[in-house]
Amino acid sequence: MAGNVADGAERFLADAAARGLDVDVVERPAARSLEEAAGILGISPADIVKSLVVKHRDGTFLFALIPGDRQISWPKLRALVGVNKLSLPPADVALDATGYERGTITPLGSTTAWPVYADASIMGRRISMGAGAHGRSAFVDADALTAALGAVVADISDPS
């Protein structure tokens, strides 16, 4: 698996560079939870953005970028996407869809460039997100990230 970890980190950095995104990647100890990761990084859970892989009934996927203190609002996301069924796939399906293990997933460097939907609450600030490998976090400007990814920015979350 070590080869895949390096590969994921390299794909992340290469894609960020290709998009002209300024990302700061930091190494950190493994965290057992998002809250623990936030503590290690010295930021609030809201500043860690989860990159969730969401599966359409037709077998395609999308990324939902959700702040760490919130959760996907399935009704809002389904309405925005215009479908009546979306789901979180098992970890192995998410890996096949993105090339990233759960906990390292990011739209940057995904093996397939699925559409990105970002919760509006992440905008206007510097956020932390997965960087393609365990024990790594990336800091990036949310506005620059969503612009570089061509993300649909909308209210797609609810408080946890």
Structure explained in plain terms:
By secondary structure, the chain is an alpha/beta fold. 31% of the residues lie in helices and 29% in strands. The chain has five helices and ten strands. Strands 1, 2, 3, 5, 6, 7, 8 and 9 form an eight-stranded mixed sheet that branches. The longest helix has 17 residues, at 2-18. The protein starts with a helix and ends with a strand.
How far do the termini sit from each other? 33 Å
**What is the number of E strands?**
10
Order of helices and strands: HEHEEEHEHEEEHEE
**Rg measurement, Å:** 14 Å
Keywords:
31% helix; 29% strand; two-stranded antiparallel sheet; 160 residues; alpha/beta; 5 helices; eight-stranded mixed β-sheet; globular
Secondary structure blueprint with pairings:
Blueprint: H1 2-18, E1 24-27, H2 34-41, E2 48-56, E3 61-67, E4 70-72, H3 74-81, E5 86-87, H4 91-98, E6 116-119, E7 126-130, E8 136-141, H5 142-149, E9 152-154, E10 157-159
Parallel strand pairs: 2-7, 3-6, 6-9
Antiparallel strand pairs: 1-8, 2-3, 2-5, 4-10, 7-8
Concise structural overview:
With 160 residues, the protein is of the alpha/beta class.
